[in-house]
Amino acid sequence: MTNKKGVLVIVSGPAGTGKGTVIGRVGELRGDLRYSVSATTRAPRPGETDGVNYYFKTREEFETMIGAGAFLEYAEYVGNLYGTPAGPVDESLSAGLNVILEIEVQGAAQVMARRPDAVSVFLAPPSLAELESRLRGRGTEDDATIRRRLDTARGELALAKGYQYIIVNDDVETAARELDAVITAGRCRSMYYPEGENLL
Ligand code: ADP
Ligand code: 5GP
User: Fold this and answer.
1) Whose CA is closest to atom 20 on ligand 1?
2) What are the pLDDT digits (tens) for 36-70?
3) Which positions ≥6 away from 85 have C-beta within 8 Å?
4) CB 55 within 8 A of CB 62
5) Contacts of 87 (CB under 8 A, 6+ apart)
6) C-alpha to C-alpha distance for 37 and 200, rounded to whole angstroms
């Protein structure tokens, strides 16, 4: 017998903490990951591609999707809407792929409430000073946006204890190995197997 169903993995953490970097590395370590592509009203950054990094939407288009019940969760974050399209998540889980939701804390709380099968991981920076330096080093946001994101980060860090796992992203390789281990453990949970004598 084997568990043929994938694990739904929530990864939250302040902007600039290294979620994209660590998830990218885990994707190299194991071939059974599917990154859920979110919809957002945020403008694309240089180098971002529609349908790969995000589905870029107008606010009106996004609100139509909300009305149609298209989202597993959605939230407003620093002035923009972000949401996880529900359909592809369940299709991938049924196909045995582990689905990574890289989402902020309000959306994570919605998924935790709706999906008790989800595994929740908070990726924390080693310090606030290091977080600021990573955000600035990435060079993708202006100074005002960085300051708003750092303010938001303080509130987000206070929620870390509500997640099943906390991984500190000091070293990318270590953090990636820890996330890899959490996914493997999640996949071994008895909840994926039938009751009693039907186990095998
Ligand atoms: P997020 O997806 O959480 O917003 P990114 O993955 O874009 O964060 O990382 C933000 C910046 O920090 C990037 O420039 C990235 O290269 C860098 N970074 C990520 N993880 C580490 C780490 N462990 N040590 C040093 N720099 C890192
Ligand atoms: P960014 O603008 O830097 O790409 O993302 C800003 C924040 O929104 C990050 O914390 C990111 O994880 C989060 N985010 C991305 N997609 C979604 C989503 O579909 N839902 C929610 N709730 N947050 C998201």
Assistant:
1) 18
2) 999 999 999 999 999 999 999 999 999 999 999 99
3) 36, 37, 38, 39, 55, 65, 70, 71, 72
4) no
5) 70
6) 35
Question: By C-alpha distance, which of 113, 102, 151, 111 is closest to 131?
Answer: 151
142 C-beta neighbours (distance < 10 Å), count: 8
Q: Can you name the residues that pair with 80 across neighbouring β-strands?
A: 77
Q: In angstroms, what is the span from residue 15 Cα to ligand 1's centroid?
A: 9
Q: How far is residue 29 CA from its own chain's centroid?
A: 17
Chain centroid offset of residue 57 CA: 19
The model's confidence at residue 3, banded by pLDDT at 50, 70 and 90, is confident
Alpha carbon nearest to ligand 2 atom 20, residue: 83
Strands (E) in 52-103, as ranges, are 54-56, 71-77, 80-85, 98-102
SS3 content of the chain, % helix, strand, coil (to 5): 45, 20, 35
Over the Cα atoms of the chain, what is R_g? 17
Nearest ligand, CA 176: 1
List of residues 6+ apart from 187 with CB closer than 8 A: 3, 6, 7, 98
Residue 141 confidence (pLDDT) above 90: no
Could you tell me the pTM of the whole model? 0.94
